[in-house]
Amino acid sequence: MRDVIIIGAGTAGLTAAIYALRAGKSVLVLEQGTYGGQIVNTPKVENYPGIEQISGYEFASGLFKQAEKLGMEYRNEKVIGVRQEGTCKVVETEGEIYEAVALVLATGAKNRPLGVERETELTGRGISYCATCDGMFFRGKKVAVVGGGNTALEDAAFLSNYCEQVYVIHRRETFRGEDKLVKELREKANVEFLLNKTVQELKGDTTLQAVMLRDKNSGEVSRLEIDGLFVAIGQVPENGIFADLLELDEGGYIVAGEDCRTNVEGIFAAGDCRRKTVRQLTTAAADGAVAALGAAQI
Known about the structure:
Elements: E1 2-7, H1 11-22, E2 27-31, H2 56-69, E3 73-76, E4 79-85, E5 88-93, E6 97-105, E7 109-111, H3 119-122, E8 127-128, H4 131-134, E9 142-146, H5 150-160, E10 165-170, H6 179-186, E11 191-195, E12 197-203, E13 210-215, E14 221-225, E15 228-231, E16 235-237, E17 267-269, H7 281-295
Parallel strand pairs: 1-2, 1-6, 2-3, 6-17, 8-15, 9-10, 9-15, 10-11
Antiparallel strand pairs: 4-5, 5-6, 7-16, 12-13, 13-14
Helix pairs in contact: 1-2, 1-7, 5-6
């Protein structure tokens, strides 16, 4: 019986481990992949307070080593089920069954990819899924944003303040995002809308140099020379295994407020897996601290 089990070893999960361990609790962290989460793919992190610049890998490694030094128990195992037995939280992996007093879910969310060839290869080399994280690297350059929701429109507005030219690529004629955001973008001289178009191919040897766009109406394929491509077509939370136990919203995110408490006593959600409006490195760390301190009181 552990005091706290944490599922997920991204920024939220590792921060939760650090805070729970410092509170004197026994902590087991379960991660199906590599620790660090999405941030490990970011070559430069320049928006974390107090750290002028660091690679995502170095940042994640620092969190892991800190938690490890404090006594974290860490296992690479895929969680396939979570249930409650009385006040005990039971976590089942592909090979073991664990029990804990409290549970912190920090499973994160994956950016929905375009699904085109070489996308993974060029991520961090011209392709990004976070304009606020990586936009400054493209100051004075030409970039494109793919998507039609508020996130894509907000990303385009943000990038227009720093980039020479911003293209908004959307597969439809109309946007899911707010009309107000669309109107504001149309008034910007350095923003151009490319509608009814989809990204078919990525060009560039070691870094992105251009994208091939297909017009959905005519079928015509054209080449767009850009330095950066920001993909904003949504995220996919990995919370399906919790659906029978916890309340999820329509997007599949765990319903939990700023106190990170779910509808089940003793279970907390931290980071990108919970319903929230801002998903950044700082908010993931904040969630991890809040969730761990709450779990330590159970």
